[in-house]
Amino acid sequence: MFKYIKFLYQIMTSSKYIKKGKCNKCGNCCRNIILTLGDNTPIRTEEQFERVKEWDKHFCNFYISGKDENEVLQFTCNALDKNNKCKVYFLRGFGCRMYPKKDTKFLINGGKPLDGCGYYYEPNKSFSSFLKH
Hints:
Blueprint: H1 2-13, E1 17-21, H2 46-55, E2 62-67, E3 73-77, H3 94-98, H4 104-108, E4 119-123, H5 127-131
Antiparallel strand pairs: 1-4, 2-3
């Protein structure tokens, strides 16, 4: 019985994926970014962007660089230098520190880091290892 409970606990609490690799310093993650509001709604207007900048000053590092096919604003970071290095690396925001975020729902639906990114994900455990218990 204890083994079964332990097995269920491990399944429910373990990460489904492991982030591997390292940053290639390509700068792609700092360009054409889609920023979101607190509820993960993409920013679509300049007014929304201004409100978000008042709430979190790290958003002031971004400027509007275009719109995607869904009319969602795209942003580029002002802190990226010509050599793809962050000029404010030690003071960067939480979103930058977490990239690429390990979002299981995103990964299960086929999401992956941007092209050129040195990071990649692998399943934490193979399917066959779950069947052994």
